[in-house]
Amino acid sequence: MKTIDELLAEGVTGKRVFVRADLNVPLSGTTITDDGRIRAVLPTVKALAEAGARVVVASHLGRPKGAPDPAFSLAPAAARLGELLGVEVQFATDTVGESAASTVAGLTDGQVAVVENLRFNAGETAKDDAERGAFADRLAALADVYVGDGFGAVHRGHASVFDLPARLPHYAGYLIATEVGVLKKLTEDVQRPYVVALGGAKVSDKLAVIDQLLGKADRILIGGGMAYTFLKAKGLEIGSSLLQEDQLGAVAEYLERAEKTGVELVLPVDAVVAPAFPDLKSKDPADATAVVADAMPTDQMGLDIGPESRKLYASKIADAATVFWNGPMGVFEHPDFAEGTKAVAQALLDSQAFTVVGGGDSAAAVRILGFDENAFGHISTGGGASLEYLEGKTLPGLAALED
Ligand SMILES: Nc1ncnc2c1ncn2[C@@H]1O[C@H](COP(=O)(O)OP(=O)(O)OP(=O)(O)O)[C@@H](O)[C@H]1O
Ligand SMILES: O=C(O)[C@H](O)COP(=O)(O)O
């Protein structure tokens, strides 16, 4: 894999450099609630701009449906990037259309532009190779060189991540180099006990990784939205909690395999429930109560692990030598459902373990809940990406950067 340092040594003055970043930041309306992913790509963008490149930054944000949707505009992220860089950043209101073409053509050496959300174009995420390729051709027309630095998205075989680097000279940015450097340690020489804590809302993505993790981790602690599919697989009532029905069979098999192989697969023993998903803007009290896991009311939704689970999970983390944590334990954005996530973050800090926190929302949770991000071993910008890396999978966005 060629690195950005090699590109800088070759010289970039006057070259149009396409930086595929992951600026998929949490938003409340148009306000960025955590800018960690923008700060993470600064070293790459700064180095290129200072070396005289014409930098074109692109990213996805959220999961719009292949067409423009103002709720998912990258404009706030572009503005924040400009503030952090301390320079004016141009913003193109489309990704490969007239606005992008004229914005990029207007860049002078050392200037930076952001183009609109890649996923406003159906070609970005298309399953069909030709459709993705056609979109990648249009992206390629915007640049002379490609720098991959969107670590959080390297597990996606999308046009800007996988197809575009094949069309341009390509290099890995500083963020990807750092992330891979740290995560490699967890795959090659992991210190045990190795504890993995999993939560969050991307249930179908994350249930799939447990298959591989069962052969690697000593303990797996399950929280967040995915916990309820496990509880349901054990025959418990889960009310209106998140459920991945099509994976109930797989989950039952994980439970059986864990039992046979001696891996501890730890499930919540209680939950904080409420009648409905809370209003994250008003943060009004949500009528939350704690119930034991085998007495969840049919008309309630599980939104956090309960007080006994917090203690249990902290005890399972206390003696770990390595902890990898991805996915909040509950809907931490609302104070009534933040305690599980706080307890796990605190347990990581109280342990002597090498701790890695992965994921856009997990990293944001740590900072928003007031923890010192420097107290953790590593805060990864990738959730799904880091999990799939730890599984030992070939990640499309890393494979595409190989020579
Ligand atoms: N029980 C639950 N029900 C519904 N949503 C939940 C529950 N527990 C946590 N969440 C939500 O999960 C979201 C984060 O999940 P997600 O899987 O995206 O994690 P992540 O750390 O951002 O990883 P990635 O980087 O892969 O996206 C938070 O917004 C949180 O509110
Ligand atoms: O938040 C993430 O994990 C990355 O930005 C990838 O987003 P995606 O899961 O929507 O592809």
Our measurement of the CA-to-CA distance between the termini, rounded to an integer number of angstroms, reads 6 Å
Largest beta sheet: strand ordering: 5-6-4-1-7-8
Molecular shape: globular
Number of helices: 16
Description of the structure:
GO terms for molecular function: ADP binding; ATP binding; phosphoglycerate kinase activity. Pfam families: PGK (PF00162). It is an enzyme of class 2 (transferase). ATP binds at residues 206, 302, 333, 359-362. With 403 residues, the protein is of the alpha/beta class. Helix content is 38%, strand content 17%. The protein has 16 helices and 17 strands. The strands form 4 sheets. A 6-stranded parallel beta sheet has the order 5-6-4-1-7-8, sandwiched between helices. The relative contact order is 0.13. The mean pLDDT is 96. The structure holds adenosine-5'-triphosphate (ATP) and 3-phosphoglyceric acid. Residues 152, 199-202, 224-225, 242, 302-303, 326-328, 330-331, 333, 359-362, 383-384 line the site of adenosine-5'-triphosphate (ATP).
Condensed summary:
With 403 residues, this protein is an alpha/beta fold. The protein has 16 helices and 17 strands. The chain has helices at 4-10, 36-50, 75-85, 98-105, 122-125, 129-140, 159-163, 174-188, 203-213, 227-233, 248-261, 307-318, 339-350, 360-368, 384-391, 396-399; strands at 16-20, 27-28, 31-32, 54-58, 89-92, 112-115, 145-148, 170-172, 194-198, 219-222, 264-266, 270-274, 289-292, 301-305, 322-326, 354-358, 378-380.
